[in-house]
TrEMBL record:
PANTHER family: CYTOCHROME P450, CYTOCHROME P450 12A4, MITOCHONDRIAL-RELATED. Belongs to the cytochrome P450 family. PROSITE patterns: CYTOCHROME_P450. This is Cytochrome P450. InterPro entries: Cyt_P450 (IPR001128), Cyt_P450_CS (IPR017972), Cyt_P450_E_grp-IV (IPR002403), Cyt_P450_sf (IPR036396), Cytochrome_P450_monoxygenase (IPR050121). Keywords: Heme, Iron, Metal-binding, Monooxygenase, Oxidoreductase. It comes from the Bacteria.
Length: 462
């Protein structure tokens, strides 16, 4: 069957409706929402949030607005983005693990970092890192061969794979020696410190909450560990006159094109932490969700395997030969956007979507809601990769935000899509994947869109 025929068949199938958590009552009390927020932010939204253009509420002493129209989102994230900053709660949760890296920097510091890092993430630069991605993926496949027929935790396997790719593309060395420590740090922070508590939301940023004390202690250990990784990379050396071989090389030699300024040692450490964490965690989660959806939809899984076989196994395969696999990933990111919520606080008054916005009002842009909004998508809860096939009308740029949009769009978006597309094609090309665990996997929103449990899969050789 040709790829064109595969697309046509896929378009005619009855679409899969993956399980989703129940929607909150529209009349849920503020205290009820606050309690639910600690466990799963996704479960705080009711049916109106999937239908209305704007939802107005209160966030302590200030108004909050959920924006569901592309024009309003464009205004906040592009037209007047300098009027909107991260909320205090968002900074509290992310700063201990990301520091002042690109994701959290503001103003001149952000512009300096963005200009300096941009050359490291061009398609040409990412292309030089593809061999690292391929080698890590092939090693993961070889390891999974030892689990054929037995229950396997693909979520853990994808976390290890994404971490290995992050380590190799950042430092050119395998993460076997450091990987468990890094995973322990990520799990510790996610389980104990990443969810905002009541005082995190209530107190001004300059007033430490009880959780902030624990976060500060965590950061001390975390930055020491990142320093050890950087020292190990420097000890490995670099051939004089040779081109950069990894992201660390690229960041060390990077200079702000306007000022000529390099990163300080602390800034470099924060960039390393940001790139490793933001890169490996979101990619691992996207790969898990894609494999889960394909296990629920064997026919689409077979289409991905057929495409992977036809694309071949070149050392650096052309991504354009994996168009259907990429469409599966795009649809996965629509249903399970890694960043399920973007929260911004108004620095000054203005008008948005017919509303008078005051200083410190909170603007909420939720990719989880946008990507499932009934006015913006046909059959929004269904898994339909054909939406993203070449030749189909693209979604509105401000209705599909898996990597954000505007000046602060994710700098590593191209890197992540190349990595995930190559890995997904090779894994599905190697194995037939089925679910053993029949308990529905529910998405929960805690920093990223995570599964509520890790189901067991069974792999068989194709």
């Amino acid at each position: 069957m040709s790829i064109a025929e595969v697309y046509d068949v896929a378009d005619r199938r009855a679409p899969l409706l993956p399980p989703t958590p129940p929607r909150a009552p529209d009349n849920m009390t503020a205290l009820g929402r606050l309690a639910a927020l600690r466990n799963n932010a996704i479960a705080t939204w009711g049916q109106r949030a999937y239908q209305d253009d704007l939802i107005k509420g209160r966030f302590f002493n200030h108004a909050s607005y959920i924006l569901n129209t592309p024009d309003a989102i464009r205004h906040v994230l592009i037209d007047n983005y300098e009027n909107y900053t991260r909320t205090a709660a968002g900074i509290r949760v992310l700063q201990p693990i990301l520091g002042q890296g690109l994701l959290l920097a503001e103003g001149r510091a952000w512009k300096h970092q963005r200009r300096t890092l941009a050359p490291a993430f061009t398609p040409r630069a990412v292309g030089t890192l593809v061999p690292h991605m391929i080698s890590a993926t092939e090693e993961t496949i070889a390891e999974l061969q030892g689990s054929l027929g037995a229950p396997v935790d693909l979520r853990e396997a994808m976390q290890r794979l994404a971490l290995e790719i992050a380590g190799r593309t950042m430092f050119s060395f395998a993460m076997g020696r450091h990987g468990q420590t890094l995973r322990d740090f990520v799990m510790e922070y996610g389980m104990k410190l990443a969810s905002p508590r009541f005082l995190d939301l209530l107190l001004p940023l300059g007033w430490p909450s009880p959780q902030d004390i624990s976060r500060a202690l965590f950061r001390r250990r975390w930055t020491r560990f990142i320093g050890e990784l950087m020292a190990a990379r420097r000890a490995a050396g670099k051939t004089e006159g040779a081109p950069p071989r990894d992201l660390f090389d690229l960041m060390v030699v990077a200079r702000d094109p306007e000022t000529g300024e390099a990163f300080s040692e602390d800034q470099l450490g924060d960039q390393v932490a940001t790139m490793i964490l933001a890169g490996h965690e979101t990619t691992a989660t996207a790969l898990f969700w894609a494999l889960y959806l394909l296990a629920l939809d064997p026919a689409t899984q077979q289409d991905v395997a057929d495409e992977a076989r036809s694309a071949g196994k070149d050392e650096t395969p052309a991504i354009e030969r994996l168009a259907f696999t990429r469409a599966v990933l795009d649809e996965t990111l629509r249903l399970y956007p890694p960043a399920f919520l973007i929260a911004r606080e108004a620095a000054g008054p203005e008008r948005v979507a017919g509303q008078t916005i005051r200083r410190k009002d909170v603007m909420l842009i939720a990719p989880w809601l946008l990507h499932r909004h009934e006015k913006l998508w046909d059959n929004p809860s269904a898994f339909m990769p054909a939406r993203f096939l070449p030749g189909t009308p693209p979604p509105d740029r401000f209705a599909y935000l898996p990597f954000g949009v505007g000046p602060r769009v994710c700098i590593g978006a191209h890197f992540a899509l190349v990595e995930a597309t190559l890995a997904l094609a090779r894994i599905v090309g190697a194995f037939r994947i089925e679910l053993i665990d029949r308990t529905p996997v529910m998405p929960i929103g805690i920093v990223t869109t995570q599964p509520d449990h890790s189901p067991m899969f069974r792999l068989t050789r194709r």
